[in-house]
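Bug #77: duplicate submission created two jobs. Keeping one. Sequence:
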Amino acid sequence: MKKLFFFLFVFVPLQLCEAQSLEKMQWFNEPEQWEIKDKTLSMFVTPQSDYWRISHYGFTVDDAPFYYATYGGEFEVKVKVSGDYKARFDQAGLMLRIDHENYIKAGIEFVDGKYNLSTVVTHKTSDWSVIALEKAVPYIWIKAVRRLDAVEIFYSFDDKEYVLMRNAWLQDNIPVQVGMMAACPDGKGFNVTFEHFKVKHLPDLRRLEWLEKNSE
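Kept job's structure:
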């Protein structure tokens, strides 16, 4: 029994760590140039690519690079993003995606020469919210927390103090593709780097509330 217990204790954490390995994730719209090195994903973003559905512009596009893994339940995901943004609407950050009609993308976006914290929420049609930054930043941390049917999006300049930038609905009790997204709707492509990508499982909130109400 002692030998068996030791094997299980060591084996389970190793499996959990491997599940978040960048090498085991997969592409949707794989770009021509990308690399994983030292736990960092770098890519040259595909020109003329984006995610958007219908509203305001009247068109739908679903062709930008997205590197993801699938997670169920509730979780927290964060990543450090830095990019050589050049053209209008160059963008990079996190994406949580159920399908082509239901997704959230959040990160930094270059618009008319200024850096903006940007979130697009799509359910059949897309909406767009921005927070303008006073000056250019070398990098940004983006974090998303999925709890029940809500996703909270945060940003940070130091991975210590996080500020809420959006709270959005996303259907719960359904698997979600979670990962790193970049898009270049108007430009000729740009280089972007994603570091310290991490997904942390969170205990199911409904179950925790049930256990508390039904504890002896």
